[in-house]
Amino acid sequence: MALALIALFAQPALSEGSSADKFVAAAIDKGQYLGAVTLIARHGKVVSWKAHGRRELGSPDALEPDAIFRIYSMTKPITSVAALMLMEQGKFQLDDPVSKYLPEFGEVRVLAGGTADAPELRAPKRPMTIRQLFVHAAGLAGGEQTPPEAMRLIERAELHRATDLQSYVRMLSQVPLAADPGALFNYDGVHTNVLARLVEVWSGQRFDRYLQERIFAPLRMQDTGFTVPVSQRHRIAQMTATDAAGRLIPSATYAGVEPGRAINLYFSGAGGLYSTAADYLRFAQMLLEGGELEGVRILSRETVSLMMTNQLGTLEPPQLEFRPGEGFGLGGSVAIDPARRARVGSVGDFGWFGAASTYFTIDPREGLIAMLFMQHLPEGSPVEPPKLSGRFYTLVYQSLVQ
User: Fold this and answer.
1) Given this chain, do its domains 19-80+207-399 and 91-203 carry the same CATH topology?
2) What positions does the domain Beta-lactamase-related occupy (predicted)?
3) Which of 157, 270, 326, 360 could form a Cys-Cys staple with 371, CB 3.0–4.6 A?
4) Which fold, 91-203?
5) Burial tier of 273 (Cβ tally within 10 Å: 0-12, 13-18, 19+)
């Protein structure tokens, strides 16, 4: 449980018995979730790091603070940092066309009409750019804004069968775009997986090795990777779901899947990582401190500022937000109007979440990082438990005392 970052505050930065932790503990006591790890840091020091509940259904074993989680889309900010490191080395510019580095996308077409069986295609109005991959606006199919016929085409591609990022991109490039590049925010992992492949092209290294050598090892993120060593798999939190009666059950998605094995056949930059709250804090603290942690610089301060700046104004036509009060930077959400977001926070706070109920936020104005890690997948139950992140963040702010 090494957390070399931090000693506890000599004076508390949260009120005694944080209401945020009490709220999470109460949800677990009600049986809404199996367990959770919460971690709150302020001004570079941990002020609360707690585990609640159990690690596995039917087991008395308590969840420990060093539990390992599948972080899914919280992989995306890490992939974005990996790519931005290569931008700083002059390997690309944000508005370069993707086809300059991945020729497979040079002949891509947009679905203009017809059906999946008889598609009508046209040339895109503008080239797909690297920036659009960061911002989930490259026109790729897969997200919630994808028209039904385009969704059928991306599903037929069976991208999950790809065995590496190179084959993933080759398969994806054969699928028509769902929209013109730069015209629509359409969040989906396909964008970040293409970005991960570009990291391989620019660096000349396999994606997993690049992350390990350039990010995880320098930041001492010792429990983060695409697999978990057999000797550490006892620390993995069980993935749960909810049945029709509102009871916790083992996730059907992970039925028969050995915990700790790779989540995908390829190294997914969109959602393939395992991590711990302690490890992810080191990554988040690096961003909060302008790209440097304990004398190790990962990115320049200016690049981190760019990453945490709303990019949706670069779309055509420009957009302000992708949901009320929130814009999107180079790999995560950016608060532009906390009042419209209806959640306590500061203008400019940055964060994201994973599909299995892991969450983080970074508030540069308050010097604050707050994280909530659970392992629960919505699998279609009519009585899914309430999401905890919004109220958790609000209670964290209410507990600040200095």
Assistant:
1) no
2) 21-379
3) 360
4) Methane Monooxygenase Hydroxylase; Chain G, domain 1 (1.20.58)
5) buried
